[in-house]
Amino acid sequence: MFDRLEIKVLPPGPRYPAQLRFWVNGEDVVEEAVGEGGRGPYAADALPAGRPSPLRATGEARRLELGEPDCTGGCCGYLAVVVQRFGEIVLWSDWEVPWAAHTPKPHPSPELHFDASQYDAAVAHAEADRWWQVYS
Predict the structure, then answer these.
(1) Of the N and C termini of the chain, which has fewer Cβ atoms inside 10 Å?
(2) Distance in angstroms (rounded) separating the CA atoms of residues 74 and 87
(3) 95: left (phi over 0), alpha (psi -120 to 50) or beta
(4) Model-level pTM?
(5) Average pLDDT rounded to a whole number, residues 85-101
(6) Measured in whole angstroms, how far is the alpha carbon of residue 133 from the centre of its chain?
């Protein structure tokens, strides 16, 4: 059974521009790993206009920053994962989780396996829905 990815764009707030959240199997991966008040990557960085998103999975493994705690990733570290495509499977593995969590939080699964077509559709949907640019 494959894991299921949903990418949500949160509207800008008083401190941050629009940002992404990654829901895997119905759970907000960023909030679970970095805590309430943490943030995901900025939508403008993760969903750049006119070029492919760094969220796209290719045969080349690369590290992807998914979030950081409220104190910033430069202070406590980032939530990051290695993303790579293996044929019809997209693999998220080799997690890095911010080290200064003040309370025990569940960590992401060691590996997540997505059906490549579902993963591609989630990324394409996020790339195409640019409502958040109105607020940028």
Answers:
(1) N
(2) 35
(3) beta
(4) 0.86
(5) 87
(6) 19
